[in-house]
């Protein structure tokens, strides 16, 4: 229900709008029309006027077109109607009531419906509804009041509006219309300028629909001076910027910002435009009041002195609106934030107000994400993105991520990362851990975030909003960390993977290889997983691992890869650590890295097994047995022993570097970080860095020169084991042949023949010559293997010495501690200046291709 003062204002505006539409009519006709308007608004369904399907704005535009077409020589009637409508829009009344009133006025203005108007029935005094009650009371008061003159505008000045008297007099409508016809040229020009302020064409100014600016009407500006036309064009500039802002603030144009943050900006722009229209309406009232009271009239010069400040503000509003067209989310906030550092205090305050408006929905999205783990983002404007296609097993690593394009410029990346991790932790606890108790004092944090959302774009992060974000992140991170370290034993599982997958439990690895040595030598197609599982259990029971937590040991298993032709057990057998539940969500992405690291460590164990069991042990066992063949094989076995010692030094240094300097040292650093961690992500990041360092230290990163040289070294060691087996087989065949001859001689002596036949002696001589040829050929093959090995080691040392990592340079120095390879390779003698480093790298490439061909 409107108060009496507001009801009087509404009745005054409605009367003036009816006068603008009907023109010169007797007072009884206008009063009768006003009563019909009250009846129509009270019950539009039962009225003889059809309801219009148009919205309020379209109705106003159609009325203005009708008024302009009915009075083509004078547009003052349409201008007055626009001013009255703006005054009506500023009043706080029901929008549906105002829409119904404008619909009635449209029906009244339409010529096809004007003939259907007639006297209404006696229902004016029995109107129902809030709007009908106060309008019916005003109609009654109109009949009881005496006739007196009224000017049709509220008595107001710039910045203030006085309420009207509750007792209203019926004005002399004929005098009002004659007064409108008798406007002097200066007042008419001022009225045209006022209309242009809000983008409405007038008597002297028309709108150019191509450029959007105003231009002079040649028919009505012939009598104006150049100064007057110049002032009109200068004043119309304000309307040009008004139209630009209104175009962005209107959602039907398609240029408006998008999303809820865009809606907040649109509402703020509409509020600015509404306040500006209010000021223009006050100017129009003051102009009308001065005209009716005979005071000094306000002309174009007065408007020029007034419009400077509104023009500056409207220019910046237009600039802001143009830059924010069709933007959304963080991109919209960043655009406004870039305009904040301005030397003009008015511009700073304006941009700050707009930023505060759009940060309110942003703050609500952040608080909902951090406290509830929810994202309501229909327009894709939040800087946290959820991938619905990702399952719970990849929730922690892949389901949520930052949308960098929507990250506001005033939001630091580390703060955005904390916001992301907080909401991610909430979803992890709810979906994976199935916990609904997500912490306390969430209501206080939510209130602190929502009430202080205007502090999001603060230059320093010491505001109440930032403190609430930090507290929410700390509490949630500690809760997740306690859950994973406590009940789920995250640190124990990491330690278990380090001991078994990274072969840190030395006695376990040695016992496992002893149990599996027969299976490791078989073809890949002849090995079965159940046999290996039994051997793994036996190895665990034989060493210190039997005192380990059974929950840790139950996750360890042996897996077989699909064998390719020619592969043996060493190539397809690997260890696997299986995790489930929340641990799988955290650690599953690192399992491929563990598998990648396990392969070079397992291959190094394979080479160590070949050296210790098959090569060195075989040499030691056969040295005494083949003593009789030393005159023939002495030089070859001596070279073999030297070559074996060279290989053993390389492999032992390689094992020490990888197992101790790489794995053990990085594990010590990881333990320090895990003890000092305050959030789960700190442990996971330290663990990932630990694996990355080991992967690089094990020479199993990218396909670089070091890896290729190391593969060549291992291949030559395997070739040496094959060569040695064949060489000793030839030696034992010769030894067996000699023993057989001795047996034949002994048997002949017993029979009295004393010796062997000439044929047997000839056969023995031929076999011996064949053996000598084989020994000679074997020695040449051994030299070839040793030469290829030496080239591979030299290239490996060159890559180590030219590496930027000082640890690798020291490792290369230990491998060539007596400068054996340096003396045999001139590239290793050159100082590592940039020029020599470049030349060394040019030398490495052909060596790699040569080794690959061999």
Order of strands across the main sheet: 1-2
What's the shape?
A: elongated
Radius of gyration: 48 Å
Cα distance spanning the termini: 100 Å
Mean pLDDT: 80
Helix content estimate: 55-70%
Give a count of the beta strands, DSSP E runs of length 2 or more.
Answer: 8
Structural class: mainly alpha
Low-confidence stretches: 46-50, 111-182, 833-841
Main location: cytoplasm
Subcellular location: Cytoplasm, Cytoskeleton
GO cellular component, one term: microtubule
InterPro entries: GCP (IPR007259), GCP_C (IPR040457), GCP_C_sf (IPR042241), GCP_N (IPR041470)
Describe the structure.
With 854 residues, the protein is mainly α. The chain contains 33 helices and 8 strands. The chain has a two-stranded antiparallel sheet. It has a two-stranded antiparallel sheet with strand order 3-4. Helix 1 (4-22) packs antiparallel against helix 4, helix 2 (27-42) packs antiparallel against helix 7 and helix 10 packs parallel to helix 13. The longest helix is centred in the C-terminal third of the chain and has 47 residues, at 630-676. It is elongated, with a radius of gyration of 48 Å. It starts with a helix and ends with a helix. The relative contact order is 0.04. One of its GO terms (molecular function) is microtubule minus-end binding. Residues 490-821 form the Gamma tubulin complex component C-terminal domain. It is found in: Cytoplasm, Cytoskeleton. One of its GO terms (cellular component) is gamma-tubulin complex. Belongs to the TUBGCP family.
């Amino acid at each position: 229900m409107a108060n009496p003062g507001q009801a009087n204002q509404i009745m005054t505006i409605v009367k003036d709008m009816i006068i603008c539409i009907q023109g010169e009519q007797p007072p009884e006709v206008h009063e009768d029309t006003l009563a019909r308007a009250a009846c129509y608004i009270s019950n539009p369904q039962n009225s003889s006027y059809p309801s219009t399907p148009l919205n309020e704005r379209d109705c106003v535009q159609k009325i203005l077109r009708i008024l302009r077409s009915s009075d083509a020589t004078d547009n003052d009637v349409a201008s007055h109607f626009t001013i009255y409508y703006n005054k009506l829009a500023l009043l706080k009344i029901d929008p549906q009531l105002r829409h119904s009133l404008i619909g009635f006025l449209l029906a009244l203005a339409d010529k096809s419906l004007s003939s259907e108007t007639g006297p209404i029935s006696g229902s004016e005094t029995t109107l129902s509804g809030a709007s009908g009650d106060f309008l019916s009371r005003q109609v009654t008061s109109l009949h009881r009041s005496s006739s007196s003159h009224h000017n049709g505008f509220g008595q107001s000045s710039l910045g203030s509006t006085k309420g009207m008297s509750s007792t209203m007099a019926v004005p002399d409508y004929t005098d009002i219309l004659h007064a409108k016809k008798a406007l002097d040229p200066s007042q008419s020009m001022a009225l045209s300028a006022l209309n242009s302020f809000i983008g409405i064409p007038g008597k002297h100014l028309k709108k150019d629909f191509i450029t959007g600016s105003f231009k002079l009407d040649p028919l009505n500006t012939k009598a104006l001076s150049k100064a007057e036309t110049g002032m009109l064009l200068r004043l119309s500039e304000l309307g040009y910027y008004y139209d630009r802002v209104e175009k962005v603030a209107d959602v039907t144009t398609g240029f408006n910002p998008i999303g809820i943050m865009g809606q907040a900006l649109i509402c703020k722009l509409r509020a600015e435009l509404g306040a500006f229209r209010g000021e223009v309406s006050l100017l129009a009232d003051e102009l009308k009041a001065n005209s009716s009271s005979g005071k000094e009239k306000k002309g174009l010069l007065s408007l020029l002195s007034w419009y400077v400040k509104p023009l500056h503000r409207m220019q910046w509003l237009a600039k802001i609106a143009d830059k924010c067209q069709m933007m959304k989310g963080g991109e919209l906030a960043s655009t406004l934030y870039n305009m904040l550092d301005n030397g003009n205090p008015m511009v700073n305050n304006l941009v700050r107000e707009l930023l505060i408006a759009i940060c309110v929905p942003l703050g609500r999205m952040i608080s909902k994400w951090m406290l509830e783990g929810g994202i309501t983002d229909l327009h894709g404007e939040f800087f946290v993105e959820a991938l619905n296609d990702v399952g719970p097993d990849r929730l922690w690593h892949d389901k949520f991520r930052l949308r960098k394009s929507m990250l506001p410029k005033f939001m630091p990346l580390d703060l955005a990362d904390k916001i992301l991790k907080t909401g991610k932790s909430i979803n992890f606890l709810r979906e994976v851990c199935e916990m609904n108790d997500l912490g306390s004092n969430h209501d206080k944090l939510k209130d602190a975030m929502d009430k202080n959302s205007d502090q999001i774009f603060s230059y320093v992060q010491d505001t109440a909003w930032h403190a609430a974000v930090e507290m929410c992140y700390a509490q949630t991170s500690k809760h997740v960390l306690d859950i994973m370290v406590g009940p789920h034993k995250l640190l124990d599982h990491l330690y278990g993977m380090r001991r078994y997958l990274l072969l840190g439990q030395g006695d376990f690895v040695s016992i496992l290889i002893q149990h599996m040595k027969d299976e490791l030598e078989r073809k890949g197609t002849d090995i079965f997983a159940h046999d290996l599982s039994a051997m793994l259990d036996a190895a665990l029971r034989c060493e210190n691992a039997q005192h380990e937590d059974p929950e840790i040991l139950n996750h360890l298993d042996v897996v077989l890869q699909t064998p390719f032709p020619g592969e043996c057990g060493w190539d397809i057998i690997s260890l696997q650590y299986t995790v489930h539940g929340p641990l799988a969500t955290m650690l599953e992405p690192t399992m491929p890295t563990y598998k990648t690291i396990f392969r070079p460590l397992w291959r190094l164990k394979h080479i160590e097994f070949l050296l210790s069991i098959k090569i060195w042990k075989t040499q030691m066992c056969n040295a005494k047995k083949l003593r009789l063949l030393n005159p023939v094989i002495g030089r070859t076995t001596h070279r073999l022993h030297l070559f074996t010692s060279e290989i053993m030094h390389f492999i032992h240094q390689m094992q020490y570097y990888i197992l101790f300097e790489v794995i053990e040292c990085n594990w010590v650093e990881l333990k320090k970080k895990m003890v000092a961690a305050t959030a789960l992500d700190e442990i996971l990041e330290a663990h990932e860095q630990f694996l990355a360092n080991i992967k690089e230290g094990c020479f199993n990163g990218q396909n670089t020169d070091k890896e290729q040289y190391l593969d060549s070294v291992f291949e030559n060691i395997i070739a040496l084991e094959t060569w040695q087996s064949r060489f000793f087989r030839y030696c034992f065949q010769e030894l067996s042949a000699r023993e057989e001859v001795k047996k034949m001689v002994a048997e002949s002596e017993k029979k009295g023949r004393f010796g062997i036949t000439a044929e047997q002696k000839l056969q023995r001589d031929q076999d011996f010559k064949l053996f000598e040829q084989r020994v000679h050929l074997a020695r040449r093959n051994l030299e070839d293997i040793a030469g290829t090995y030496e080239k591979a080691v030299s290239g490996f040392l060159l890559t180590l010495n030219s590496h930027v990592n000082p640890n690798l340079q020291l490792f290369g120095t230990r491998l060539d501690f007596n400068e054996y390879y340096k003396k045999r390779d001139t590239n290793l003698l050159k100082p590592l200046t940039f020029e020599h480093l470049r030349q060394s790298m040019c030398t490495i490439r052909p060596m790699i291709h040569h080794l690959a061909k061999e």
